[in-house]
Records
---
Amino acid sequence: MFFRKNKKYQMNMDTANTILQNVFAAESQAPNTIPFDKLVLREKANTRFYDRFLVMLSVVVLFVFLSPLAFIPITGNPITGFSSGTLELVDDYVEKDCLYLQVDGAPVLYKDAYLETTDGTRYSPISFDEKTGTLCFPYIENLESNIYIPTMDGGTLHLLLTPQ
């Protein structure tokens, strides 16, 4: 690796033990009762856990940084319930208690369109013209209604009709 030490210093165990005992004697401390070679083995055993932990932590950090590459970008509109092709309301008017809506854009499932009032009553279109994209629903005055016009690709145009 890049950060490893190139130079390794080694000392004879007997010399190291003698130096340790001299340090204790200079500080007026009790001499060391544990042999120096056992101290070195303990230190190596204690650092093994940390070395393995650092390697494991490095792998986890690597996965965290590489995880965005695992996601496939979604093409189109990821929100369900909306058409990937655009469906627009071109014109609307009321004539003889009928609400006429003209839509343009994505292919429409005219038979599956419906008007739903706030009390839960559903009304299918009275008539529709596929050539002009016009749907005719019953017009109910003074009652808020939701109009749902599904498209062939699975989307739905949702219109809200509020009384004036």
---
Amino acid sequence: MAVILIVLMISSFVWSRWLAKSILAHCRQNLPFSFSGAFPIVVALFCVVLLVILNLSLEQTLSQALVGGLWSIEAAVLLGIFTWLSLWTGQSRSDSQTITEQDLAASEHLSVIAYSDRTVLISPNPRSNQPSQFNSMLLFGMGLFFWTMLDLPTGILEIAVIACSGSGLVGISTWQIQLQPEQQIMALKFTGLWDLQATYTINLRHFPRLQIVKLSEGDLTWVQLSGQSNELALPGAIIDNSTKKTEDHSELAQILLKTCRLARHETSRDSLGLIGLLLPQGTGILAGVTFSIAAVLMLLLLPLPNNIVAEGTALLIGTSMLCPALAKRIFKLVAPTVMPSDPPIVLPHFHAWEIGTAIILSVITSSHHQKLGLIALSAAWISFGIGVCILALVRRTPINIKV
């Protein structure tokens, strides 16, 4: 077994060179990482083999050795990606000039690409955006690693697992804005796993003005598209963290004013004047925090099942696929003024939430003991996932405001 494991780890290290090359290409073009080729098949095989090992009636020592071997293979892949990327970036850095302060300052600005048809693509800079993407991918995998490998007290382990998985789930996301000045169209796209991705198409003919709205009681600032009868507040995720503010307004506002020829308007309002914006954001934040706190209390107070590594692994996967869709529906209920996303161009045969629901129900119904504990664990993990996803949606969804 040790010889087989070493051979597999070396093979994984070599195979990671292909994966690192794909990552480098996507980072340079500032594109969301696309899982193409053999990568989804390898990930699916990893999950299937893990579930098979956990469901086999093996001795505890042998089962732990096999599971540890699987994680050693994944560690070899991650180590290989780190090695190849370090070699390539180090070589290109030695061939080029030393990074200057101007290069570091440029990394804080947005990436703006203008095409021949006058279409403009705006996105966060890869140097500031991509590291958080891959950190979130590692967090998402660490939740499964903690569940299968760590031996923590009941309740604490479940909280640590869903906290890592939930943070990684909402963190694997980036955004792009596509401007079409001739048609006066702005398409705002958010990427994400399963139902966390969204596209919002905005007709700028209905919003001829760009407003920089400041809260008179504090330092908060919003960027809004203003029309005759309503206003549209742009998501905070693209305003606060991904733009570098100048002395008068944000960098994104400058690009929109210059490209789409919008009229600029600055105003200061009190909290009552911003009630149409603060109310949906506040209710969304309150709902997200409430679901998260309720989940933690359930994990600490309810009787949870013991020795369900295999069942818990399947529940964690099913919960991650189900929660984004539930969070979207609950967020629309508590904040009905949020802008609905565009319908998908191609409808899949099976939605992610359908597969996640089937996994959860199959685990609960097939278990001959500790059903109440499995139901409690599922409810707590779903509640925490909904809360985290709602908090992410608050910062990624435009809000309609009636004037």
---
Amino acid sequence: MQDIKDFQIQHQNNYKNAIREILKNNSKILVEEDIMSLINKPPLDSMDIIKCKFLDLAKKQKVVLDTKKLDKLIDNYRKDIKKDILIIKDERIKLFDKIIESFNPVKDNDVIKFNKKDFNDFNKKVKKELKDKIILKINNNIVNNVNTVFTKDTDDKKQEKISSDIIKFLTKTYVKQLLESVDFKVLVKDTTLINGVKEQGERYIFTKMNSYLLNEDKMK
């Protein structure tokens, strides 16, 4: 026969596991769907801001680009940066799982809390690392190979002008816009996670205070 203490421990473990599940699902959607949607090849070429910028600059200079090679450069960049983005999910889960695991209630109304400071510190670190990695992957996959998208008969000055402008766009405007979009996705999911954990805590306390199996006073 299980006594009240056993049921209380089981209830607490179930609570921790429920929070873990919320954390995992939230982090998975954030990284694999929300952030990755900003990197994945869009369904229409007109939605591909990198390719459109290349073509727009070439059009202004009346230059025809090798679109197959251009597509390859952009695809290589996407594949490369995706590996780094996926790591964010595991790091986020690992950080907040430590908070879950360390939960050891002293008062009856103690619950697991994810503080905004924890998110702010983590997000600041991730943003800095992500910015550096995006710039590195852009340089490795696109900037260093930008000359391959021009045909042999392209005027050197026009080629140099397009290359200079696209590099400036990618390393400044594109990175800034991408990180701003990531910030928004993160803010939404952080808020959702905080609220989900709060709701789970309310259920935990309600059951703890009202269940006959968990409360000695209810047994009397």
---
Amino acid sequence: MKKFLSIAIAAICLFTMVIFVSCGKEADSEDVAALSNEIFEGLESDFNTAVSILANQACKPVDYSDGVDKNGNLLEIDGGWYIPLVEEYDTADEINAVLKRVYTEQKCGALSSKLFGEGGRLKEIDGALYCEAGDIVYTPFNLPFESESKVSDTEILAKTSVTYDSGDVPFEITFKNENGDWRIDKLTEDGREVDY
């Protein structure tokens, strides 16, 4: 009888421990999901601004017809066509300030290099920045995030998708905590890192 009672108590203890562990894991997963969505919510406004700059959407309006831009914003520079950026983002300092509010230092450096480095997409003329004429396609990813995992105390991987006419494509965002602030470190669409 004592042996049976000992086995029963051990089984109850084991069952209780399994419940606590699985509840703890579920709570951790829910905490990470909430944190991921909360982090992005805090970055979303600046992220949208950064994407508009990176996708050539922060330019002055062009009204092109009969070979002429009626607004006078479309300029030919070095054999290519360029449009000035709106005043809020027409200097490298203003653009870099937006990027730093959204991305990690490493990601900022990579994006800044693509914009301002040798052969970069932006040209400076008389102290103002111009972008190449033509949109860069950006399709927003779906929110809220579908799943999240805590890679470490300073890194979270959030997974979602981008919806195209042909169907959904996997999309991942890596958030990193730098100096106490969560920033976007990497964005990957269908396994390929994207430039925004």
